[in-house]
Every structure is written in C-alpha cells, then in structure tokens.
C-alpha cells in the first residue's frame, strides 16, 4: 500500500474526470505522477517538498514528479481546480479553518 490510499486504475480515472486538479499535501507526488501520466492537468503542492532537499522532508527522499511548495493557504490561487486530498494530515491548527475557506465545486 501507499500511505492511506492505494492508487488503482478506477480511482485515477474518476479523479481524472475532475481535471484540472490541485493536490494538497502530496508528499512525494506519487498520485500526481500517475495522474499526469494519464493526461490529467495537475498541480502538486506540499508544505515540505522533497525538491527543497533531503533534510526538508523526513518521510520522502525523492519526488516522483514536480512538487511545489504550498499549503492550504495557497489554495486560493487555484479556484478553478478540483482539490485532491489523498492523505489529509496537518499538524497546523489552522488547517481546518483554511480548508473551510476552500470555495470550489469539488472537494
């Protein structure tokens, strides 16, 4: 398995129907990489992207695709994208409040 979500063809196809997509907390970008391979327009965000160096992310040493620095507070820049949360976890107390400000058609 991979984190709390196991990617399979059916899941990727359903998510792809909501393209364009922004994935928040994408870690190594594994799901984003699979979706991009399937032609989905993806923005992959993580508060601690691997691309910032091995000391930046204690869970992943490399990314499967391009992952940009971003948190829930950055979602306002992507109002026309569906939001993908594969393993929603944030130690930040404001995360729930920030997610409450998400104003998109699909969550």
Automatic annotation (TrEMBL):
Highest rank taxon of the organism: Eukaryota
InterPro entries listed in its UniProt record: SAM-dependent_MTases_sf
Descriptive protein name: Class I SAM-dependent methyltransferase
Organism per entry: Octactis speculum
């Amino acid at each position: 398995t991979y984190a709390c979500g196991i990617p399979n063809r059916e899941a990727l196809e359903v998510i792809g129907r909501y393209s364009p997509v922004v994935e928040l907390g994408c870690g190594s970008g594994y799901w984003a990489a699979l979706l991009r391979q399937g032609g989905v327009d993806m923005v992959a965000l993580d508060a601690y992207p691997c691309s910032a160096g091995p000391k930046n992310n204690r869970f992943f040493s490399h990314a499967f695709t391009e992952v940009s620095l971003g948190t829930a507070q950055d979602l306002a820049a992507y109002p026309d994208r569906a939001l993908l949360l594969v393993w929603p976890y944030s130690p930040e107390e404001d995360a729930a409040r920030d997610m409450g400000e998400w104003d998109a058609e699909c969550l």
